[in-house]
Design goal:
The protein has 155 residues and is of the alpha+beta class. It has one domain: 60s Ribosomal Protein L30, Chain: A (2-Layer Sandwich), CATH 3.30.1330.40. Helices cover 30% and strands 28% of the residues. The protein is built from 3 helices and 7 strands. The strands form 2 sheets. A 5-stranded mixed beta sheet has the order 1-2-7-5-6. A two-stranded antiparallel sheet has the order 3-4. Helix 3 links the parallel strand 5 and strand 6. Helix 2 crosses helix 3. The two termini are 17 Å apart.
């Protein structure tokens, strides 16, 4: 990986994780023209979940925020794979979608998914600004706390 974004990652002390293989009948990303769709990423690090359980009950909002950041790191790893390792091919992050494993009375979804949004801004600057949704779900794959999907425009 070389270029401006690689240098920014180094400056931020960020090392992208290895890409995770799909856990079902889907692909990790699809490319249609210049639009790259990244499948939902969960907080896997070295083959293990970093956060499991419901945010607001088993996991604090702050831990959920950190969990969303891990999901975003996995998204960036998938984007790098789609771009042959060159994140400078990203024109901008168009949209993030965040799912928070929580109970019916939880309402801090935006604070949790900010962990992913803030990483996009740190890495891509102005090109990291995106549309977003942050919603609650009664359960997520493997009992994880957060799942995040993304859409990017490539140059």
């Amino acid at each position: 990986m070389a270029g401006i974004i690689a240098a920014r990652l180094t400056e931020l002390g960020i090392e992208l994780p290895k890409v995770a293989a799909p856990a079902g009948a889907y692909v990790p990303y699809t490319l249609s023209g210049k639009i790259l769709f990244v499948s939902g990423q969960i907080p896997m690090r070295d083959g293990s979940l970093t956060h499991k359980g419901k945010v607001g009950t088993d996991v604090s909002v702050e831990e959920g925020h950190a969990c969303a950041r891990v999901c975003a790191l996995n998204i960036l790893a998938q984007v790098a794979a789609a771009c042959g390792g060159d994140l400078d091919k990203v024109a901008r992050c168009l949209k993030l979608g965040g799912f928070v494993n929580c109970g019916p009375d939880f309402n801090d979804h935006p604070k949790v998914i900010n962990g992913a949004s803030e990483l996009m801004l740190e890495v891509f600057g102005e090109a990291g600004k995106h549309a977003r949704f942050a919603v609650g779900a009664p359960s997520l794959p493997l009992g994880c706390s957060v799942e995040v999907e993304a859409v990017f425009e490539l140059k």
